[in-house]
Design brief:
Number of strands: 3
Largest sheet: 3 strands, antiparallel
Mean pLDDT: 86
Low-confidence stretches: none
Distance between the termini: 33 Å
Order of helices and strands: EEHHE
Strand order of the largest sheet: 1-2-3
Radius of gyration: 15 Å
Helix content: 25-40%
Shape: flat
Structural class: alpha+beta
Number of helices: 2
């Protein structure tokens, strides 16, 4: 088992006329525990470029993340050890 359990959040978006993709990353590290060993999930959002649906799509994604055992168990039963923020140039 790794020396930590990690919750990783990435937001990708297009920048500029060329459509270069950028990514913002947040990682929350939690000390290892047996109950975290088998937890894993991926909750992908949708392209929220339509202002008419962006808010409702974001709320639906947040609800999916918060309902995930991988999130609930780590965030309610364990203390975050550290955080990491980053920017990725993908395109």
């Amino acid at each position: 088992m790794p020396a930590h359990y990690a919750l990783m959040f990435t937001r990708q978006f297009y920048v500029g006329d060329a459509g270069d993709m950028m990514g913002l990353k947040l990682t929350i590290f939690v000390r290892p525990a047996d109950e975290l060993r088998t937890l894993e999930d991926s909750c992908f959002g949708v392209d929220a470029s339509d202002p008419a649906t962006a808010a409702s799509e974001a709320k639906a994604w947040i609800a999916r993340v918060e309902a995930s055992p991988a999130f609930i168990i780590a965030m309610t039963r364990h203390v975050a050890d550290r955080f990491s923020f980053g920017v990725d140039a993908i395109g």
